[in-house]
From TrEMBL:
Keywords: Lyase, Metal-binding. It comes from Malaciobacter canalis. The keyword Transit peptide does not apply. This is Cobalamin biosynthesis protein CbiX.
């Protein structure tokens, strides 16, 4: 089974963390692939951690993990911290396939998304 993990920074504000939980729930509701599980994790400041989220799903049968960094810019977290966390898991689970997807800010649809917010919503 394949797993999509949405990875966000994590915040001291519970409302911010709840937004990531809600995003994952919306993705689950709209998921049409029965072979795809969806979850989320936080890099720091709160739970679930990347390590815990992924290990829990490996135990539940996921053997192909795709990680989506929910970050706008390719800073230290995207370039170093997330890959380091995934590298540790790769060592621990050599039979599991891991892939880090491009971060949110690099998605070509981001331009259309931003312009779509300018349209009159009334």
């Amino acid at each position: 089974m394949k797993l999509l993990v949405i990875i966000a920074h994590g915040s001291r504000l519970e409302s911010s963390n709840k937004e990531i939980h809600n995003l994952a729930e919306k993705l689950k509701i709209n998921n049409i692939d029965n072979n795809l599980k969806i979850t989320y994790a936080f890099l720091e400041l709160c739970e679930p951690s990347i390590n815990k989220s992924i290990k829990d799903e490996i135990i539940n049968g996921c053997n192909e993990i795709e990680v989506f960094p929910y970050f706008l810019a390719a800073g230290k977290h995207v370039k170093d911290d997330i890959p380091k966390e995934i590298d540790k898991l790769k060592e621990e689970y050599p039979n599991i396939k891991f892939k880090i997807l491009p971060h949110l800010g690099s998605c070509k649809e981001i331009v259309s998304l931003i312009f779509s917010q300018l349209q009159d919503k009334d």
